[in-house]
Design a protein that fits this description.
4-stranded antiparallel β-sheet, elongated, minor pseudopilin epsh fold
């Protein structure tokens, strides 16, 4: 009888737990993109050189082109959103008709745009202001 009650409780809690995990993952992935876009903007200003952020929807990844990864020196700064801890998909990335955002030496983006990511049923959009380059999630 105890096992039946426990099994019933687990079967009721599992979908909620799974849904909660998916929500946390999509929000974490969106925050990571916001932080990395701010990093790219700062890098462009401090290095006095343009900095490109390239999104690849097919492999659900993005890279800060030409920047070394802080944890893996010598390797390009690349984030695979489809892997742990995010498990996210890039649904779309559009910055003025392409999937690249380029910050000039003043940190000004070449265009505004957005990246849409998804985990399970949860979707988040990261929007980049075309004037300031500031990335936000509503």
């Amino acid at each position: 009888m105890v096992f039946v009650i426990m099994a019933t409780l687990v079967s009721m809690a599992a979908p909620r737990f799974s849904n909660s995990i998916a929500l946390q993952r999509v929000e974490a992935a969106a925050r990571r993109i916001v932080v990395d876009l701010a990093l790219a903007q700062r890098q462009a200003r401090s290095s006095n050189a343009s900095q490109t952020v390239r999104f690849t929807t097919g492999t659900h990844e993005y890279s800060l082109v030409g920047m070394s990864h802080p944890d893996h020196l010598g390797l390009e700064y690349k984030v695979l959103l489809s892997e742990d801890p995010y498990g996210a998909s890039i649904v779309s990335a559009n910055f003025g008709g392409d999937a690249e955002l380029i910050f000039d030496v003043f940190g000004v983006p070449d265009s505004g745009g957005s990246v849409v990511i998804q985990v399970g049923n949860h979707v988040r959009t990261v929007t980049v202001d075309p004037v300031t380059g500031r990335a936000t999630t509503p």
